[in-house]
Design a protein that fits this description.
The complex is a heterodimer of chains A (about 375) and B (about 260).
Chain A (H helix, E strand, L loop, with lengths): L2 H6 L3 H9 L3 H9 L5 H8 L7 H16 L2 E11 L24 H13 L4 E6 L3 H4 L1 H11 L5 E5 L5 H10 L1 E5 L10 H4 L8 H5 L1 H7 L4 E4 L8 H18 L4 E5 L18 H14 L4 E4 L5 H7 L6 E3 L27 H10 L3 E3 L10
Parallel strand pairs in A: 1-2, 1-8, 1-9, 2-3, 3-4, 4-5, 5-6, 6-7, 7-8
Helix pairs in contact in A: 3-4, 4-13, 4-14, 5-14, 8-9
Chain B lengths: L3 E3 L2 E3 L3 E3 L7 H11 L3 E5 L11 H5 L6 E5 L6 H15 L3 E4 L12 H13 L3 E6 L3 H10 L5 E2 L13 H10 L5 E3 L5 H9 L4 E4 L1 H4 L4 H21 L17 H4 L1
Parallel strand pairs in B: 3-10, 4-5, 6-7, 7-8, 9-10
Antiparallel strand pairs in B: 1-2
Helix pairs in contact in B: 1-9, 3-4, 4-5, 5-6, 7-9
The chains are: A alpha/beta (about 375), B alpha/beta (about 260).
């Protein structure tokens, strides 16, 4: 059985209704529970939990402190390619967008790597569009080989692959794979993903299963906030996480909450998640899962990020460029999205230190993959 | 207080500490100094062994403090042996806290893989301190294959729940020929004192100190609790009695017969 069968047992509208029907006593029970269930999670993301936001924040802070201490893991994305065969209507890399397509050469990658190493980063996230020819498994494997000795921890956010490919990458030293379902609403998924391999809802949905089978150290999941009703979509993400944790118990899990940002193209978000709701969501996840890594990217603005250091987030990017080659040659190629927090990595780490937290640059070693 | 000897080293302090979760390396250094700890674990994955310039290691360069590298992050014996060799080379010590927890959620130790790795590492000349469940049989097996001490858990790591494995710790203390260090789950100084009263030779504390509002003061509090617990153990405490002892015993007539 894969998550596909679990997903089929749930009806989107019923889930949405049951979240909306949660009341204050459900929220209070969830807040008091030592081991919150999925029903408790529904209560915590429901409108009924809004008056309990401060209590949720306090609890989230305490739980995060206990598990992660006063630390914040630092990472940086390295965009390798903006070539993409998909037509996701909300994304700047959409194959229909008339932009200059670039895939970095080895020399260019080393140039980028040298700059981000200079900034202090040991954890790097490699990002590509989904284009099997330009940036498929062979290309990514070569890049991992190229960078393995330079970084302590390599993550990727790339096109989904099959088990043997993931196994190969794992053996080469890949630590983490982020794969976002974007939306768990199967009926509406094709509207956003009309073209390319990504239009196959189930193949994407079963990707974390394939990652688990390949024994990848850490799997990152999430949905894109701005497509469908955020409460329902994030419930399905929690359901997915729960399933994965039970089945692939040796794997670590990570989640992030990307909110749609302005980009090339004209898509407007269908479901707006305001700042207060995003705080509610992050706190709800922490209360639901105390061990989960929660990351917050530069999609969010400096004030919001500063205030989230203590509320449940455990990992932050900084100084990010979202276009291939952007560290050596900024503003030349098309960005996936505009960052909201354009502070340098030094400024962000200073902000973290000023709050009494340590910015952690290294928390893994390539030697652990033997 | 009486000294503790493990392998080639003798310790005045029976409080071992960790180096994770601190707000800064400076706070960590000040806290360790205040706690009097002479053995501090350090996660190999956190230090930069390539460049040789690591801020955390520089702050752990405290007179009288020995490093105890740990293998946190490995999932099996093979990875642990490899990481141990790297740690020995990088940190210049053959001491090792062997921890293998394939489950990243509760970080519970894998006894089977730990025994396998301990066997091999002891042969390779490591001073192995394995982190394990409070499993008396496993402790004896580890002793047999050459563990320098055993480190049973009090409760899940970082949980601050205290000594939930009390009955088993007592059996381990009774049976062990190597020092017993209660590791994981110690949340407040009274838990540390309790472990020492039970007869543990030392305790290892990290989260409870590192995430306290005032880690330095908490480090001192643990120092005192560990000393108090050890002193109490050596003093031979009276047995616990449910009822007060009767002042007119029913069998005193026997003395008069």
């Amino acid at each position: 059985m894969s998550f596909k069968q679990v997903h089929q047992q749930y009806n989107w509208d019923e889930v949405q209704n049951s979240i909306l029907q949660k009341n204050s006593s459900d929220v209070e029970r969830a807040l008091q529970s030592a081991a919150p269930t999925l029903e408790d999670f529904k209560a915590l993301i429901s409108p009924a939990a809004e008056p309990y936001l401060e209590q949720m924040a306090q609890k989230s802070h305490q739980l995060t402190l206990k598990r992660f201490g006063k630390t914040m893991q630092m990472y940086i994305p390295l965009y390798l390619s903006n070539e993409c065969a998909n037509g996701c209507i909300y994304c700047g890399f959409n194959c229909k967008n008339k932009i200059n397509r670039v895939t970095l050469s080895k020399e260019e990658i080393l140039q980028e790597a040298a700059i981000i190493k200079e900034m202090g980063f040991e954890h790097v996230l490699l990002v590509t569009g989904e284009h099997p020819k330009a940036c498929g498994i062979d290309y990514i494997s070569e890049v991992v080989d190229l960078l393995r000795d330079s970084f302590a921890n390599i993550s990727v956010e790339i096109a989904p692959m099959d088990v043997p490919d993931y196994e190969r990458m794992q053996q080469k030293g890949l630590n983490t794979v982020y794969i976002y379902q974007e939306t768990y609403n199967k009926a509406r998924y094709p509207i956003y993903h009309p073209k390319g391999k990504k239009s196959d809802f189930n193949y994407r949905l079963e990707t974390p299963d394939r990652l688990g089978e390949a024994e990848i150290h850490r799997i990152g999941v999430g949905c894109l906030l701005g497509l469908e009703d955020w409460r329902t979509d994030t419930f399905f993400t929690a359901l997915h996480l729960n399933y994965l944790e039970q089945k692939y118990w040796k794997t670590k899990y990570s989640i992030s909450f990307p909110r749609l940002r302005p980009h090339a193209g004209s898509f407007e978000p269908n479901s707006i998640v305001n700042d207060k709701q995003l705080v509610q969501l992050i706190c709800a996840y922490r209360i639901f899962n105390q061990e989960l890594e929660i990351s917050l990217s530069t999609r969010e603005n400096p004030v919001f990020r500063n205030n989230m250091v203590k509320l449940g987030v455990t990992s932050m990017s900084a100084g990010s460029k979202t276009e291939p080659g952007g560290y050596a040659n900024p503003d030349k190629e098309l960005k996936q999205f505009e960052v909201s927090d354009s502070r340098s990595s030094a400024e962000v780490s200073q902000m973290i230190i000023a709050q009494g937290y340590e910015a952690v640059w290294k928390d893994w070693d390539a030697c652990f993959t033997v | 207080m009486d000294k503790l000897t493990i392998a080639d080293k003798t310790f005045t302090s029976r409080l071992f500490t960790g180096s994770g979760k601190f707000a800064s390396n400076q706070t960590m250094q000040d806290t360790i100094t205040a706690s009097g700890s002479e053995l501090v674990t350090v996660a190999l994955k956190r230090v930069d062994v390539k460049t040789g310039v690591d801020d955390m290691l520089q702050h752990l360069n405290i007179p009288g403090v020995h490093l105890l590298p740990n293998t946190s992050g490995v999932r099996n014996a093979k990875e642990a042996v490899f990481a141990a060799q790297l740690a020995r080379e990088a940190l210049g010590t053959n001491w090792l806290k062997l921890e293998i927890h394939p489950d990243p959620k509760y970080l519970l130790p894998d006894g089977e893989e730990t025994l396998k790795a301990c066997t091999e590492l002891a042969k390779l000349g490591f001073v192995v301190l394995p982190y394990i469940h409070a499993d008396p049989v496993l402790c004896k097996k580890l002793e047999d294959v050459g563990a320098a001490a055993v480190m049973p858990l009090g409760s899940p790591i970082g949980s601050n729940q205290g000594i939930k494995t009390r009955e088993f710790i007592q059996i381990i203390v009774e049976q062990s020929n190597v020092p017993v260090i209660v590791d994981a789950g110690i949340g407040v100084p009274s838990h540390a004192a309790e472990a020492m009263e039970l007869g543990a030779d030392a305790v290892l504390v990290n989260t409870a100190i590192a995430v306290a509002d005032d880690p330095i003061q908490m480090g001192r509090a643990f120092k005192m609790a560990v000393e108090a617990g050890r002193m109490a153990r050596l003093s031979g405490p009276g047995a616990v009695r449910v009822k007060a002892e009767a002042s007119s015993p029913l069998t005193s007539f026997l003395n008069e017969m």
